[in-house]
Amino acid sequence: MTKSSFSQQLDYIVVGAGVAGLTIASRLFQEPSTIVLLIEAGPDGRGDPRIETPRLLAALYGDPTLDCDFMTEPQPHDGGVKRWRRICCQFYTYQMPNAARAEMLGLNGYMGKDNQGCDGPLPVSFPAVYGPFNRAWNEALGGRELGAFTCPLSMDATKGIRGYVVVYYTPEVAARGNLTVWTETQVERIIFADDKLDGKIVVGGVQIRSPSESTIVTARREVILAAGSLQTPQLLEVSWIGNAQLFQKHDNLQDHVIASLSYKVADDQVSGDVMRDPQVVQYLPQPYQETKGGPLSGMPISAAYMPLVDRDGSVGRESQRQMLLNPQQLTAEYLFFPAQLRTKPGRTTMHDLLEKKAVGNYISILAMLSHSFSLGSIHIKSSNIQEKPAFNPDYLSHPLDLELLARHPQFIDRLVHTQPFQSFIQPESRIPAVDKADLAELDDARHVVQERRFTCFYPAGSCFMMPVESGVVDSQLKVHGVSNVRTVDACIFPLEPSGNIQATVYAVAERAADMIRV
């Protein structure tokens, strides 16, 4: 059956089959009389070993069928460097919102014991692999007030496979008949209905294009956008909903910016760099295929939330007060990565970042700014949905971002020169090299941030939820001025969470489904 001959009367069209889209579609169709169409521009990746195998994540980079390959606009605050980001397959750390803070805010209805179980559809666990560097990390930072921890991952440790949103689309779900999924199908624009409702625009459906045809599909109730923080606003602008003036008035794109330092490990240690050695790689598949164990079964991600620090591990209250109203507020998350990372002037892709340039084994420590004062934008370049939008995160455009972030590499460099880390690495082997920047000087630390700045792949806030005077969507996630278009992904965040956004995106989709089904 062709898409143009599709005859079901649809209630909802969901655009985007990622974390938010597949979650909300799977909830809406649970009412047997509700008919849902889920449209995804990419292919069906189920069964692809690069997706299912936790440690093969990097093998997806550069594959145009799964890699969206978004490039930023040139960033004037780092000498015109272009940075690459991709949104089709983010890192798989899973960080729950802060329970104590939720209780303090009176959100007890969302904190019940029945909401804190361990038997939901998404598997979350820790990999069996845990090495000496992870132990050293916890020993070095575990005494901090905010502390070090090992991130839970979206993976099924018993099966050794990645856990992701496809768990919502089981064979039983597919057999129900009231949820249809179209992959390799691009939504080109949103189609308006002829009438209005309470003075608001009414949307009738979407125009789609697949490899074999182009047609229009209609929905009786709503069109739900879950295409991500870059493509949801693109689709709205291409469709002339809100138009560019609305988004320019409320530019609020936020992304976590990172500065990284890499260090060569001691001669008696190895790091993840060995997995780039063809002589080693050839032996990795066998233990995974036989037992779902071994290095391919997972990668422990160690992290720590840190307040404002400098080389000595603290910043005086008066200095903090001059930068932040709350001197106890965390300013960065540290991430431990078991291999070297490389950025370079000009165009930097994930392949460039992960390419092994230096001989030997390295580890990297990344400082991720928790909340950016710099706000970016996302706007269309033309009415052609195939042309990628102008993605400008405007990293470090607010001077306070550089001041906050630069102090963390200073502390990291001090950290690795003390035990227990000092026994595991060669501190003088730092990338960038010691003779280029002595991080005891703040000006040199600023230079390192500008040279080694990258992204943590969490764009958010491009269609943020605020009243009509200052936002794009309302408290029901509906686009202002439109009666039946909702946005359900990270683009609605007024303020980006301090860590990984994946768990919060799942929560947005679940909450949106509850709103719709009331």
TrEMBL record:
<protein>
    <recommendedName>
        <fullName>Glucose-methanol-choline oxidoreductase N-terminal domain-containing protein</fullName>
    </recommendedName>
</protein>
<keyword id="KW-0285">Flavoprotein</keyword>
<dbReference type="InterPro" id="IPR007867">
    <property type="entry name" value="GMC_OxRtase_C"/>
</dbReference>
<dbReference type="Pfam" id="PF05199">
    <property type="entry name" value="GMC_oxred_C"/>
</dbReference>
<feature type="domain" description="Glucose-methanol-choline oxidoreductase N-terminal">
    <location>
        <begin position="153"/>
        <end position="257"/>
    </location>
</feature>
<dbReference type="InterPro" id="IPR036188">
    <property type="entry name" value="FAD/NAD-bd_sf"/>
</dbReference>
<dbReference type="InterPro" id="IPR012132">
    <property type="entry name" value="GMC_OxRdtase"/>
</dbReference>
<dbReference type="GO" id="GO:0050660">
    <property type="term" value="F:flavin adenine dinucleotide binding"/>
</dbReference>
<feature type="domain" description="Glucose-methanol-choline oxidoreductase C-terminal">
    <location>
        <begin position="374"/>
        <end position="509"/>
    </location>
</feature>
<dbReference type="InterPro" id="IPR000172">
    <property type="entry name" value="GMC_OxRdtase_N"/>
</dbReference>
<dbReference type="Pfam" id="PF00732">
    <property type="entry name" value="GMC_oxred_N"/>
</dbReference>
<feature type="binding site">
    <location>
        <position position="187"/>
    </location>
    <ligand>
        <name>FAD</name>
    </ligand>
</feature>
<keyword id="KW-0274">FAD</keyword>
<comment type="similarity">
    <text>Belongs to the GMC oxidoreductase family.</text>
</comment>
<dbReference type="GO" id="GO:0016614">
    <property type="term" value="F:oxidoreductase activity, acting on CH-OH group of donors"/>
</dbReference>
